[in-house]
């Protein structure tokens, strides 16, 4: 990782970490609810989605500040999905990013409501943004609702649940990950492009860049579930195997999964090259996503 990327990731993560709780603290709501929402927002993570949004705005030569509200709203939705994903009725996980999961600290009912709160408040944050024109807000809210809803992340989660204890095809697994994980990651890049005024052709190419990058991201997650360690990835290694889930290493072998991950990275780079933007930062982020160890 270059010093440029290291500094960029650190600065933008810090920016998100500092601002996220501020959106929740000013809500008129029960303290326990706000505490639970902030607990999971402050659990950490790499903030890859908001950073991709900022980097896309940067690649098109615009001020990243214009994307702060949307970036934080996106991280709220991602965090809500993790809270719900960890529940006993879904993945039943005790650890998330090295900390007890939300329902382990606050109980299932508050955890569910904290997730609901983050989801709904995210749209309010975008709607009230002072950085965006109303027409742009409507377009971004529509895109985010599709990415997070039944045609996106929620539908992918259902397919993931239905796929447990079955041997899926690679195509079925790709559907799950393209929707459960990939749609929000694609939204990050598309929203950044919309905010920065990308042309229709730039938008198309950046969307395809994000599509392939999102798949590479998930394949890498599956690889880390085999090769990582609990200190690095913040959850038990082999948790997918324990839940009898199909993964890329299971279907393709570990070496086959690594090969597919690199192929998806190269496709992402191809489409980024076609987008005619200042691509160096996005290229470095793409390489980081595939070469990370947690």
Task: Give your account of this protein's structure.
- It is built from 15 helices and two strands.
- It is mainly alpha-helical.
- It has a single domain (3-291), classed as Orthogonal Bundle (Farnesyl Diphosphate Synthase), CATH 1.10.600.
- Strand 1 (95-96) and strand 2 form a beta hairpin.
- Helix 7 (134-148) packs antiparallel against helix 9 (170-195).
- The longest helix is centred in the C-terminal third of the chain and has 28 residues, at 200-227.
- The mean pLDDT is 92.
- Its cofactor is Mg(2+).
- Its EC number is 2.5.1.10.
What's the overall geometry?
A: globular
- How do the SSEs run, as a string of H and E? HHHHEEHHHHHHHHHHH
- Tell me the structural class: mainly alpha
Beta-strand content estimate: under 5%
- Radius of gyration equals 18 Å
Looking at this structure, what is the CATH superfamily? Answer: Farnesyl Diphosphate Synthase
Q: Indicate the percent of residues in helices.
A: over 70%
The averaged pLDDT comes out at 92
Short description:
The chain has 294 residues and is mainly α. 73% of the residues lie in helices and 1% in strands.
């Amino acid at each position: 990782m270059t010093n440029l990327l290291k500094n960029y990731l650190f600065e933008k993560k810090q920016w998100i970490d500092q601002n996220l709780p501020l959106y929740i603290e000013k809500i008129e709501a029960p303290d326990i609810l706000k505490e639970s929402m902030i607990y999971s927002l402050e659990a950490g993570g790499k903030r890859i989605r908001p950073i991709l949004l900022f980097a896309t705005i940067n690649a098109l030569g615009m001020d990243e500040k214009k994307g702060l509200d949307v970036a934080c709203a996106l991280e709220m939705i991602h965090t809500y999905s993790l809270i719900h994903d960890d529940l006993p009725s879904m993945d039943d996980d005790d650890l998330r990013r090295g900390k007890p999961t939300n329902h382990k600290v606050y109980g299932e009912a508050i955890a569910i409501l904290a997730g609901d709160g983050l989801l709904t408040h995210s749209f309010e944050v975008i709607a009230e943004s002072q950085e965006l024109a109303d027409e742009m807000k409507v377009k971004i809210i529509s895109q985010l609702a599709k990415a997070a809803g039944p045609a996106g992340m929620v539908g992918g989660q259902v397919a993931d649940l239905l796929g447990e204890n079955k041997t899926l095809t690679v195509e079925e697994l790709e559907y799950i990950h393209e929707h459960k994980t990939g749609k929000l990651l694609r939204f990050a890049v598309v929203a950044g492009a919309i905010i920065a005024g990308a042309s229709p052709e730039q938008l198309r190419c950046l969307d395809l860049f994000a599509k392939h990058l999102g798949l590479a991201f998930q394949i890498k997650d599956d690889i880390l579930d085999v090769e990582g360690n609990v200190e690095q990835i913040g959850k038990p290694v082999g948790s997918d195997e324990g839940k009898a889930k199909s993964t890329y290493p299971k279907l393709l072998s570990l070496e086959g999964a690594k090969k597919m991950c690199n192929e998806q990275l190269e496709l992402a780079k191809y489409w980024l090259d076609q987008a005619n933007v200042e691509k160096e930062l996005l290229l470095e982020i793409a390489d980081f996503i595939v070469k990370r160890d947690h």
